[in-house]
Design goal:
single chain; about 425 residues; alpha+beta; nine-stranded mixed β-sheet; 15 helices; 17 strands; about 20% strand; elongated; binds adenosine monophosphate
């Protein structure tokens, strides 16, 4: 017997129905926002991810050498690939470029519920739009996707990295270290870095800052804490809130959270994380923000905003909220009574399928009562009993599996009868 690699999953039919439901809610929403689908490779050159996130990310990657000795890695997310594609080809498209994609991503992490080594993501990017409208559009799309799934417990936490960059009097490399400590809420590390940088007095306001979250009043508190530095960021977040209201995003669905840092170097402005508060430790279902990444990949400076949502966690959130009904069932299960009726039964089956119904037939040669047991277990809405006597009158038996009620129906009206019900 072989075992699955650690951190991977097999998804059975009921699981896949849920995953497809979540993905299709996302695709529907993204399409309705005017995004278009693209696809990039599952693996890329290792350098691409190192360029985006720094060599530290290599620890988290599934990296390998191919037979030609090339250093490659399975994608840990989509943004780097999309930006590579943008710089190479998509930049000739009219701006803003609005694209989406979805599929598996891979990270070498300690597996637990909601945290896997292979997991599903959906992702959108707006490249080359103005910052405020693009940020609002991406946030509205992320919340809209959760609505489309049927989720009601939604909490976006919105911050701004610009205020911290304005406040921290350090060069980019040291700034990155301090931001990393703040991102991880690792205060011993923060103290250590600030001591090294000979600015220990910054520790206290920074710790108080990242603890601030709530409605727009926290923006004033944050402004006071930073002594007027980074004021544009707070004005910006107020303007963003006004835009979100116009999109119909309810104030109950988001808060300002000065602790959302997302420590990666290329984030420049608004940053956000999305939670499904019903979930346990792994309640973060998405994250995103504004950045200028194209430059890192050799393109011209251009604003981008993106978000990635995790499919696995959206499914868990939908399960927690009881969004999913019973698994999707087949509409009709055709039961030939005796081998002499099989050809006619297959013709009836084929007509039902052509009419757009989900229809199946006995492939084992079971007797009628065993077949009804099977139809029941398979969750068929109807069983179609095809007997010689009824066929002489061009009729079949139509049995409602839930009620057990059975009646004769002309073959020509069968699809309509099933659809009507
Ligand atoms: P990130 O790029 O880390 O912000 O991830 C975006 C979203 O992908 C997260 O909010 C999660 O929903 C999902 N995600 C990230 N890593 C994992 C993982 N190891 N397992 C399952 N979902 C993940």
């Amino acid at each position: 017997m072989f075992e699955r690699p650690r951190g991977t999953n097999d998804w059975g039919p009921d699981d896949m129905a849920k995953r497809r439901f979540v993905e299709s809610a996302f695709v529907r929403t993204a399409e309705s926002f005017g995004f278009r689908e693209i696809q990039t490779p599952l693996f890329e050159s290792l350098d691409l991810f190192a360029a985006k996130s720094g060599p530290g990310v290599v620890e988290e990657l599934y990296a390998f050498k191919d037979k030609g000795g090339r250093d490659l890695a399975l994608r840990p997310e989509f943004t780097a690939s999309i930006l590579r594609f943008y710089v190479a080809e998509l930049r000739s498209l009219p701006k803003p470029v609005k694209v989406y994609c979805y599929g598996p991503a891979f990270r070498y992490e300690e597996p637990q519920k909601g945290r896997y080594r292979e997991f599903g993501q959906v992702d959108v990017e707006i490249i080359g739009g103005a910052t405020l409208p693009s940020d609002a559009e991406v946030l509205a799309l992320a919340v809209g996707t959760m609505h489309a799934i049927g989720l009601t417990a939604i909490r976006a936490r919105i911050g701004h990295i610009g205020m911290l960059r304005a406040y921290l009097p350090f060069g980019p490399a040291d700034q990155a270290k301090v931001l990393h400590a703040l991102d991880k809420k690792n205060f011993p590390m923060l103290d250590e870095e600030l001591a090294r940088l000979q600015r220990p007095e910054l520790a206290d306001p920074l710790k108080r800052l990242v603890a601030l979250h709530g409605d727009a009043s926290v923006l004033d508190q944050a402004k006071d804490l930073l002594g007027g530095k980074g004021a544009e960021a707070f004005d910006y977040l107020r303007a963003l809130a006004a835009q979100l209201a116009a999109y119909g995003v309810s104030p109950a669905e988001y808060e300002f959270d000065m602790g959302v840092v997302r420590g990666l170097d290329y984030y420049t402005g608004m940053v956000f994380e999305l939670d499904s508060p019903n979930l346990g430790a792994e309640k973060q279902v998405g994250g995103g923000g504004a950045y200028t990444l194209a430059e890192v990949f050799g393109g011209e400076p251009v604003f981008q905003t993106g978000v990635a949502l995790g499919v696995d966690r959206l499914v868990l959130a939908a399960e927690a909220e009881g969004v999913f009904g019973p698994p999707q069932r087949i509409d009709a299960y055709v039961v030939p009574i005796g081998e002499s009726t099989r050809s006619r039964a297959v013709e009836i089956l084929t007509a039902l399928r052509a009419a757009g119904l989900r229809a199946d037939i006995d492939l084992v040669g079971r007797g009628p009562s065993k077949n009804l047991d099977y139809a029941n277990a398979a969750g068929a809405r109807y069983a179609i009993l095809v007997g010689e006597r009824e066929l002489k009158a061009e009729k079949v038996g139509l049995r409602n599996m839930a009620s057990g009620e059975q009646r004769e129906v002309p073959v020509g009206l069968l699809a309509e009868e099933i659809r009507k019900a």
